[in-house]
């Protein structure tokens, strides 16, 4: 069985590994010169079931509206003429009710817990090294009011099996001494001891090597221009090298999935949401954190990868634009210096911006389409690193005709 995976990001490479383990002959096609050079390249690095809340919440519309007039909002809306963005935004707003938020969050946390278990099994089986730290994550609050809201909101995650704990400021600093200088800025935190961090790009590169040992072929610098169908079957994909044929095809192109699928008549509810990251070198005189986490008031995440410290922030609805300027990182850098004033060399940043392939609900699209040999593994949003091994395993089960191990309601093409 010849399987062709379109996309060499973390969703595509994990899918390739699980399919190759099934004995399939797998080819991965990507337009870039290597794996994980898009969304997976410099993301937050948090494997975080403890942060599985959907972005479509009752508070989101007000934040998006405010972003049109006030700088520094965690969610930003940049007006443009793309009709696909406006259709997606309307779908997003329909999910911003308390009930839909509860349902979508419950589905996300179930998937994320399952996916983390798959990630741990895969990493152990292949002895993958990716600067992993598995001592939990901190979700930090700056004031008592937001801490109270966070504590109340965490009930839905605890109800879905996560062992969350609340910490006061002294307990936070005891857990993460690098936050000592910010003690007076901290009201408390929610600690998830089972959450982790690790470099998704390093993981994907290491997994590529493992895939190659299983016989997976990678075709880089090979953009897909179109998918050719005959009736209800995919014949092949068009590339500059010609038509690549196969017996089955997996669409794992992230934010570009709906563009390719549109030519087959699909309207995938996936749209890019831009995020920013800044990575700093850590020297012997710095005091970086050991635990990753999120500054919930500013929605700035941090994680340490060996001798690097990364901060990520912002969800910007701006289409397919990945340009950035130093001004885009102002809020992020301010939070970094406040929380960890001696954490890294903040004068030597590496800036990056990437596109998260989001669905309005926040859950990905996995599995079958109306073409009997075309499958989806896309729309992972801001949790792609956390979800990747789980969605790949679910996909492999579906393609093999097995019953998926979790309920996939809300994760399939309607």
From TrEMBL:
Keyword Oxidoreductase found: yes
Pfam families documented for this protein: DAO
A GO term, aspect molecular function: oxidoreductase activity
FAD dependent oxidoreductase domain ranges (all copies): 4-397
Keywords, ordered alphabetically: Oxidoreductase
Keyword Transferase: no
Assigned EC number: 1.4.99.-
Stored InterPro entries: FAD-dep_OxRdtase, FAD/NAD-bd_sf
Homology family: Belongs to the DadA oxidoreductase family.
Name of the molecule in the record: D-amino acid dehydrogenase 1
Gene name as annotated: dadA1_4
């Amino acid at each position: 069985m010849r399987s062709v995976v379109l996309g060499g990001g973390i969703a595509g490479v994990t899918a390739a590994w699980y399919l190759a383990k099934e004995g399939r002959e797998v080819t991965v096609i990507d337009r870039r010169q290597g794996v994980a050079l898009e969304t997976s390249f410099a993301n937050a690095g948090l494997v975080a079931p403890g942060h599985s809340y959907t972005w479509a919440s009752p508070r989101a519309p007000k934040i998006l509206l405010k972003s049109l007039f006030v700088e520094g909002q965690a969610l930003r809306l940049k007006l443009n003429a793309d009709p696909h963005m406006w259709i997606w935004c309307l779908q997003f707003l329909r999910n911003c009710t308390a009930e839909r938020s509860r349902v979508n969050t419950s589905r996300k946390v179930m998937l994320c817990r399952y996916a983390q278990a798959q990630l741990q099994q895969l990493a152990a089986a292949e002895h993958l090294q990716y600067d992993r730290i598995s001592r939990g994550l901190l979700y930090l609050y700056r004031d008592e009011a937001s801490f109270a809201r966070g504590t109340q909101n965490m009930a839905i995650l605890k109800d879905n099996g996560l062992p969350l704990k609340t910490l006061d400021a002294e307990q936070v600093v005891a857990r993460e001494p690098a936050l000592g200088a910010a003690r007076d800025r901290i009201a408390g935190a929610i600690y998830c001891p089972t959450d982790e961090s690790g470099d998704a790009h390093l993981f994907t590169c290491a997994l590529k090597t493992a895939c190659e040992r299983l016989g997976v072929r990678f075709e880089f610098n090979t953009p897909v221009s179109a998918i050719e169908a005959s009736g209800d079957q995919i014949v092949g994909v068009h590339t500059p090298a010609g038509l690549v044929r196969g017996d089955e095809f997996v669409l794992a192109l992230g934010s570009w999935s709906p563009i390719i699928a549109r030519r087959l008549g699909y309207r995938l509810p996936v749209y890019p949401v831009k995020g920013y990251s800044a990575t700093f070198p850590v020297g012997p005189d710095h005091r970086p954190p050991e635990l990753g986490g999120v500054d919930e008031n500013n929605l700035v995440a941090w994680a340490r990868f060996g001798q690097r410290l990364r901060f990520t922030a912002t969800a910007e609805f701006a289409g397919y634009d990945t340009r950035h300027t130093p001004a885009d990182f102002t809020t992020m850098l301010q939070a970094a210096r406040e929380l960890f004033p001696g954490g890294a060399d903040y004068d030597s940043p590496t800036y990056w911006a990437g596109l998260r392939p989001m669905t309005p609900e926040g859950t990905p699209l996995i599995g079958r389409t109306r073409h009997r040999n075309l499958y989806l593994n896309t729309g992972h949003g801001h949790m792609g690193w956390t979800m990747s091994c789980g969605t790949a395993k679910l996909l492999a089960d579906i393609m093999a005709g097995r019953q998926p191990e979790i309920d996939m309601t809300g994760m399939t093409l309607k």
